[in-house]
Specification:
Elements (H helix, E strand, L loop, with lengths): L1 E3 L31 H8 L4 E3 L2 H5 L9 E4 L21 H12 L13 H8 L3 H20 L8 E4 L3 E2 L1 E3 L33 E6 L3 E2 L31 E2 L2 E4 L5 E2 L5 E4 L14 H10 L1 H9 L1
Parallel strand pairs: 1-3, 2-3, 7-10
Antiparallel strand pairs: 4-12, 5-11, 6-7, 8-9
């Protein structure tokens, strides 16, 4: 089971091979003439290839043994922007549910990786709204995985590969909108910094800087405009709209990764080994302990 975006990498650089929902005049990028979609279909004639939401919804998990889904020419949409997709896209939680429904037909079990990759992209664009909306969808996908598996025989690990220069500042009172300006305990109006300007709870240490795109849900809109880093007067700006991008300190063409340790959480066989601070290479050994990956590989070699 493979699902995601990046269809351009599978198709020849020839308009004749465009998908029905192609947004470019020539969708494919491949210069070797190969069509990896049709090659996959030839290798797995019983497999199912889908490219839109309707095709995804029609997949019968009980009878499907192989599923290949490429739902976008490039990256899949941000969750906040998914409703604007030309042909429709399944959500991360929907793909997770479908994948497990297919994979758990195998009595030998399965290994599944689910990545909420657009959390990263939204942070690079300086959009806390985009990043947090995709994070909520990741939480929904984790819930789906937990609901559709048994903790007695299935290990679920949730973690990240890096942090971002994403900050939480000030002392906003309880109930203050996370995307809003800082309003202190007992106050009704936004707190003012030493420069007599209000400031938001969330911000970025570097990046493209503040944007006020209103209801715009595509975080990548920011890359078409000049850098606008530094302090800005947000007095009359609604910072809770989808199109607001937080201020950044250091002007860069894209926000960067950071160096903090990231969280890791686990449930199921071997989850007790996920405690305190773990080197990232330990994650493999915990998965190996739970499923005996290396033992099966050694038997296969013999």
């Amino acid at each position: 089971v493979v699902m995601g975006g990046g269809r351009r990498h599978f198709l020849p650089n020839d308009a004749r091979f465009n998908s029905p929902d192609a947004r470019s005049s020539v969708e494919g990028d491949r210069t070797d003439g190969r069509n990896l979609v049709t090659e996959w279909q030839a290798q797995y004639p019983q497999g199912v290839y889908v490219y839109d939401k309707a095709g995804f919804d029609s997949v019968n998990a009980a009878t499907t043994s192989r599923l290949f889904g490429l739902f976008n020419e490039s990256h899949m949409q941000y969750e906040a922007d998914r409703g604007n997709d030309v042909a429709g896209e399944p959500s991360l939680s929907e793909m997770t549910a479908k994948a497990i429904d297919i994979l758990d037909n195998d009595p030998d079990g399965f290994f599944l990786t689910v990545e909420a990759g657009r959390v990263d992209h939204a942070h690079h664009a300086g959009s806390a709204n985009g990043a947090l909306t995709d994070t909520i969808e990741l939480a929904e996908a984790v819930k789906v995985a937990a609901d559709q598996t048994n903790p007695e025989d299935t290990l679920i690990i949730v973690t990240a590969d890096h942090s971002h220069v994403f900050t939480m500042a000030g002392y906003p009172k309880r109930g203050n909108p996370i995307l809003g300006k800082v309003v202190s305990i007992g106050a009704e109006q936004p707190e003012l910094a030493s420069d007599d300007l209000p400031y938001t709870t969330l911000g970025y240490a570097n990046g493209l800087g503040m944007r006020d795109y209103g209801s715009e849900t595509d975080a990548d809109r920011t890359y078409g405009d000049p850098i606008n880093a530094g302090r800005k007067d947000l007095t009359n700006v609604d910072t809770t709209t989808p199109g607001f991008h937080q201020e950044s300190l250091v002007p860069l063409g894209s926000e960067t990764h950071a160096g903090e340790d990231v969280g890791i959480y686990a449930r199921g066989p071997g989850a007790h080994l996920v405690t305190g601070t773990n080197e990232q290479n330990m994650i493999y050994h915990i998965m190996d302990y739970a499923s005996d990956i290396s033992g099966a590989a050694n038997l296969a070699v013999r």
